Amino acid sequence: MNTSINIFDTTLRDGTQGEKVAFSAEDKLRIAQQLDAFGIDYIEGGWPGSNPRDMEFFELAAEASFDHARIVAFGSTCRAGNEPNEDRNLQLLVEAETPAVSIFGKSWLLHVEKALQITAEQNLGIIRDSVRFLKNHNKEVIYDAEHFFDGYKEDPDYAVATLKAAEEAGADTVVLCDTNGGTLPGQVSEIVSEVLKQVNIPVGIHAHNDCELGVANAMAAVQSGCTHVQGTINGYGERCGNTNLCSLIPNLQIKQDYQCIPDQHLEELTALSRFISEVANLTPDIRQPYVGRSAFAHKGGIHVSAVMKNEETYEHIQPGRIGNSRRVLVSDLSGRSNISYKAEQLGIELDKYSDNVSEIVRELKDLENKGYQFEAAEASFELLVKKMTGVWEEFFELEGFRIIVEKNVSGSSRTEATLRIKVNDQVEHCAAEGNGPVHALDKALRKALRKFYPEISNMHLNDYKVRVLNEKDGTGADVRVLIDSAEHGQSWGTVGVSHNIIDASWQALTDSFSYFLAQEQKNLQPKEAI
Ligand SMILES: CC(=O)SCCNC(=O)CCNC(=O)[C@H](O)C(C)(C)COP(=O)(O)OP(=O)(O)OC[C@H]1O[C@@H](n2cnc3c(N)ncnc32)[C@H](O)[C@@H]1OP(=O)(O)O
Ligand SMILES: CC(=O)C(=O)O
């Protein structure tokens, strides 16, 4: 029988204490609903005594229904000298109408004496009184022992006495917090084992990632007997973040015999992680274990060759188990295996040992040596393979373009591009003005192509990056242009390299249009010009 671990998500509370992480009350509700559907046991929604947005979240949550999770309101113990029923912070915790509350109190004498400026005995008193007050209001009480490990290292008896005060007052769970994130896994194991001898209610762990040990410390605590783990999706949180649940859950559930969430939900983990970065408006970390875009991306030729024979050679789990997928990258570190794998994905059958594949590998390495970078420009790579294997038909041919940039004494400037392209045997001649030369060229090309391929209006440019390749040549250096384009949520990257920035942009731009047209009009011949 697997040991069951209660997963307590604090993305909406400690997660928002991380730099650049903020959610509206409505965002918090959407996230809470996803966490509930995923199978999280506790969702800490915020601190009602902190701000109106968190209060609004608890109002929204009270109206919503959750199938599995218990919503938790967070706050602190009451102030010394306050009767709990007169303490606004505790009153608001009761008014939040959640089935569970978590309150943090001090375990480290440094904090008792310097931060709260009260005596050790008074601190035990406010812990007891606050927990008892909340229990009298029928709340499940999770007591967070802030700075527990630092407190224990200084005075183990006092640190444990704070837990006993919470336990005696009726707390349902006590949570040992490594608030400063400075404790090491061996110390966590040792201290948790000692605490478990003295405390008779479930014990949890709340770890921070300051030594990059947030996940390791939570695992050490679980292995030593903790049955409740607090953490956040993507590891968001104060300073360097909290235990990353996207790593902790699969570590415990796939690699060890612990049950955190229902097995069938594990494959939703990657989507959950990306949904939350999307709502947070933060770029997902591609190198994030398990759920990152690069977590199963193979680049070295040796790796790809082996993975094609047996996935276990370079993958610690099957990516699909947590909803991620395998990717093969192409670069100058590629071998024949990368090319034949990618070609197969494009629907082109290429024998790994064929001359075609050897030529593509040679050309790829040569182009990368000139500054092209196909890893970020998979659409350009697709065009290259199709051209080199004879399965590509051009949608248009350039006859020529000219760009004029004028600047006058008043400081204003004007840019115009004129261009001639040929589609089948028809020549189209167009001009357009733009904010700059690439914009003008893009507009003129669209204008010309629209007559034959009206769907071209649906695609747009997402990102445009220029990188100087040989800085010592100053303004005469070669440049690499990477363009990211998109249409209806699909995006693709293309690349161009030249000593002339307009020419490099033209290459990346035309690859982008051509790739789009190939996707849209796979079997369609261009119409006659209207
Ligand atoms: C480890 C953690 O992550 S704990 C959670 C930390 N999260 C946050 O702080 C985010 C939300 N915080 C807030 O919105 C505000 O800080 C509030 C509303 C809680 C308090 O605001 P203010 O009343 O203006 O106080 P301020 O933030 O300056 O200082 C915190 C006060 O709480 C006291 N305090 C700290 N911990 C505790 C505790 N466990 N029990 C009682 N009081 C506490 C401090 O001693 C300090 O009191 P003081 O003003 O008498 O010195
Ligand atoms: C309670 C909490 O967030 C901490 O101690 O880090």
From TrEMBL:
Leading EC class: transferase
Coiled-coil portions: 343-370
Keyword match Transferase: yes
Pfam families (UniProt xref): HCS_D2 (PF22617), HMGL-like (PF00682), LeuA_dimer (PF08502)
Keyword Protein transport tagged: no
Catalyzed reaction equations: pyruvate + acetyl-CoA + H2O = (3R)-citramalate + CoA + H(+)
EC number(s) recorded for this UniProt protein: 2.3.3.21
Molecular function per GO: (R)-citramalate synthase activity; 2-isopropylmalate synthase activity
Limits of the Pyruvate carboxyltransferase domain: 5-267
UniProt record similarity statement: Belongs to the alpha-IPM synthase/homocitrate synthase family.
Protein name: Citramalate synthase
Organism: Fodinibius sediminis
